[in-house]
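Request: When convenient, would you put together a sequence paired with its structure tokens?
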Amino acid sequence: MSRSQGGTVMHTRRFLSYHGDRFDDESLCLWSEPGARLEAVLPLARSPGDAEVVVSHPGSTFGGLIEPSIDPARRAGLLAAAAGILLDRGYRRLAYKPAPAIFGAQFDESDLRLMTHVGQVRRCNLWNFIRLDHHHELAPKRRASVKAASRKGVTVRQAQGDDEWLAFHALLTANLASRHAAAPVHSAEEMLLLRQRIAGENEMWLAFDRHSEIVAGTWCFAYNRRVLHTQYIASSPKGRELGGVDSLLAAVIDDAGRRGLNALSFGINTLADGFQINSNLLKQKLRFGGGVAACWQFDVDLARLAHVDPGFA
């Protein structure tokens, strides 16, 4: 991952294998010739709902082909070779979910052009992020909220032990149940397991009131050396009264900037099929300063991909 153009912790075996036997793995390592030089990797698993569909990757928000540098023609050739292998394994279609280009060392969307030629868009999410290496600033109401939270005694720091991680999960569970009738994707046990599996590449930030009660928190993934992502954000009712989330995220943004990261990711802001915008959520996130990127998902005909002309790229 560290030597790749667009790899993230979400592409690593350390992350993907925490799913255990939940998925039938079909991941590929593509070599220049057997055992000679590793050209690329493609995390894959069988679709839980269709034995003829393989997904990159069902256990991750995104997947895609990972290679060390940018070369559209080579990328097309590698994906064509991967398609041939998958056809031999009995698959007919590929659900392809490339990582947003903002996560790469350089901006590269060459496979998007290829995928629109051999497949069709199945959904498109809007992904909110802040470019920390460019000018950004909080909207006036956000700045006022952060200052007010400070006056009310809100403080922010990283979690210091499993007990605080578990307290955050309890807060998150209550938050999702009361506001969205939903539950976290990760159980408390899975959260602690991932904390250890990707140690050094995930962190927990918490906001406390003046009585040291946790009122807001966010679990962050260091996608790579350039991008920090807020996987979950949660607040208690008291936290909403105190402006806990505003204070929390302002602190995380400042810390990520001081560490020299390029971007802070807030994730998707779309609903259902990916084409309906969650306007209120997007508006809230944009007030921290930043922009949006597209996160595409494609339904790909493997037979067409296997016979694509690399020169098309």
User: Anything to note?
Assistant: The chain has ten helices and 14 strands. The CA atoms of residues 11 and 63 lie 6 Å apart. The two ends are 24 Å apart (CA to CA).
